[in-house]
Specification:
4 helices; alpha/beta; five-stranded mixed β-sheet
Length: about 170
């Protein structure tokens, strides 16, 4: 079990006593092989393993910049989860990086999969920085769209990130 800190944008994720935690969207296999072969595949930000559970974590931070993409946010998260799952299988079978291949095989051996959508928004909404996403609405949509992977995805922010995984701080 290790403690590891990963950075995504202006957020620091301190994973505590995990088997592994990695930035999946930085993997060589994803960037050089899977993404180029599958043309515009998507990836979640982090993979983490703890107590027999594989966590797929997607992070969005709208505290400074509002969402401008026209696509539905739940659809975007669903595609990232789907493509990450396919990418893990690809890495396990044909990955060239031994560490990525080993991590992928370990990830696929887990008996439980959980999805976290980490959503940061302005704590004090204003006209300049309004809350652009309703957490309850996105959770309802994610439950519908992610049934193939996790019946109970969770939507969190810094204050509600699962303490069993660690903590998140703003940098």
């Amino acid at each position: 079990m290790i403690d590891i800190t990963l950075i995504e944008g202006r957020l620091s994720f301190d994973f505590e006593q995990v088997n592994f935690a990695q930035k999946y969207d930085d993997w060589r296999h994803y960037r050089k092989v899977f993404n180029s072969a599958c043309e515009s595949s998507k990836a979640v930000d982090f993979l983490a393993s703890k107590a027999g559970t594989l966590w797929l974590i997607e992070v969005k931070d709208y505290r400074r910049h509002l969402r401008t993409k026209p696509s539905d946010l739940a659809d975007e998260v669903m595609l990232k989860v789907r493509d990450t799952m396919a990418g893990l299988v690809s890495t396990a079978f044909v990955g060239m990086d031994s560490d990525e291949k080993s991590t992928s095989r370990s990830a696929l051996s887990h008996r439980k999969l959980r999805i976290i959508f980490h959503l940061e928004q302005p704590s004090k909404p204003s006209r300049l920085f309004p809350r652009s996403v309703d957490p309850a609405d996105i959770l309802m949509k994610l439950k519908q769209k992610l049934r193939f992977a996790d019946y109970h995805p969770i939507v969190v922010d810094r204050a509600t990130f699962p303490a069993s995984l660690g903590r998140v701080t703003s940098i």
